[in-house]
Amino acid sequence: MKNYSSYKLEDFLNDERFRKWILCNGREESLFWENFKEQYPDKINSMTLAGALFMSLHRLQVPVDKNIKEDIWTQVENSIDDFNLESEPSRLPLTFYRWWIVAATLVLVGGLVWSLQSTFNDVPLDYERQIGQAEISLKEKVNSTKSQQTILLKDGTKVKLKPGSKLSYSDFSANKRVVYLDGEGFFEVAKDSSKPFLVYAGHIIVRVIGTSFKVVSNTGKAKSSVSVTSGKVMVYATDKLDESGNQKANHAIYLYPNQRVVFDAATNAFEKGLVAQPIQLTDTGNAKEFLYTNTSVNTILNDLENAYGVTIRRDSNLFESCRVTAPLGDLPLFRKLDIVCQTIGATYEVFGTEIVISGVTCNL
Amino acid sequence: MIQNSPHDTAIWNAFRLGDKSAYAEIYELYFDSLYSYGKKFVADQTQVEDAIQDLFIRLWRNREGLASVNNIKFYLFLSLRRDIRRINEKEKAVEKVDFESFLITQNHPAYEYSPDDTERELTLKLVTILKSLPKRQLEAITLRYYENFSIAEIASIMDVSEKTVRNTLHNSLTLLRKNSNLLYSLIKLALIYLLQ
What we know:
The complex is a heterodimer of chains A (364) and B (196).
Chain A: H1 9-14, H2 16-23, H3 30-39, H4 44-59, H5 66-79, H6 94-121, H7 125-133, E1 139-142, E2 149-152, E3 158-161, E4 166-169, E5 177-188, E6 197-201, E7 204-208, E8 212-217, E9 223-230, E10 233-237, H8 241-244, E11 253-255, E12 259-264, E13 269-274, E14 291-296, H9 297-308, E15 311-313, H10 316-320, E16 323-327, H11 333-344, E17 347-351, E18 354-358
Parallel strand pairs in A: 5-6, 15-18
Antiparallel strand pairs in A: 1-4, 2-3, 3-5, 4-5, 5-8, 6-7, 7-10, 8-9, 9-12, 10-11, 12-13, 14-16, 17-18
Chain B: H1 6-16, H2 20-39, H3 45-61, H4 72-91, H5 119-132, H6 135-146, H7 151-158, H8 162-179, H9 183-195
Helix pairs in contact in B: 1-2, 2-3, 2-4, 3-4, 4-7, 6-8, 7-8, 8-9
């Protein structure tokens, strides 16, 4: 944790949260920094100066014309003749697009019949389209039972497929492990750093090396989500290649354990946060017992941060002298925090992927 | 702004393996800072655009031979600065800046700080002062306090010694101090830190 009590001019300027607060004119992060001012009145001058210096440097930045940025990118793309031809629609080179325009007119008639069919059969469009574009032969598994099914893939990856969900996959002989999902699946991906594992799930693509996570993506619904249990996961939006014809830069989102992202195709926006029920990380040793007797709250919060891989923002100095006795046991993380906070008269809030504790009145 | 982050390493490694979305991500993330940075140091504006374009094309073509990098932004700034230096040398268009001579000799209208001054006014004053600084001083300050590079990184980017960077920053802050009474005690803290 940061030692805010010894913060100096440079520290403020280097603090990402501080910069954010200054940049957005106090619209974000203000709860934290207003609180900070109250706790450290002697830092107000440093803060003011840091803020003014950062703002003035910001004003001296040369504004970027969006068109110039796009033009240069287009030229970069055009100059790169050796883009690999890949099977993924979002990564086709420009020359491929030109070919696509010709092909698209041919498909138009057939497409009409196809879309009628899909309406009648209630076939998921994105999923179906992605499978249709795949260059490798795929096997499809549809869970038409009423309970969850586990599918074991050739590389050792396990997928728990929810009822009504579908998964298409190959034997992974290509240089990537690509699967297609419609519905909900929990993935435990076998590690193979030479072959990234990609889940195409409607509007989003999830890319990992070896990890476990859950994907929910139902065709026809705008919102998809990815929740991570272990390892690191990269999520990005699928480009709609057949509609716009030009390639947009993908914004990748990185997720760590106990984090979750919801993608809303209607607004084209990702929203990152914590999963509803964070679980203890598996790679942090044995499950902790969380039994505390006269322990500093700081220590408890450190334990929780490590065990759940979350960031808990607070003033470490204030919490160090605060001691509590609490058998937290195997209660869920947020229940544990409820108990700690109630004991010391504090409250916590979740902002995105961070938990912020404030309002301590600890004088035990 | 984000330095040595594990994300950087992940994006960079994906890019080196030929992941075009990672490549696009790098462009998206760092274009703005590179552009704004380059614009300040090249006389002919279109040269910056060409330099950035070449930088990214070269990056893709050589991706397989590139080293693993845990700070993409530093790598990009370093490369762009080197290219710009080369352009300037070719064109002989650079003003030969005598680096070590930036003593506290510049005279700027001294600003009196009145307690009524709002943060906004302070910002405006600082903008005026910063604008009047020699290019290299402004460059060092921008790299340090806006782009968040370390002293060592700035030294590599600007191709000078760390001591020179330290001195330049020190001189600049001293100048700010002279010109703004309010800043005095606060900047002193920063100076102590820099001179350690």
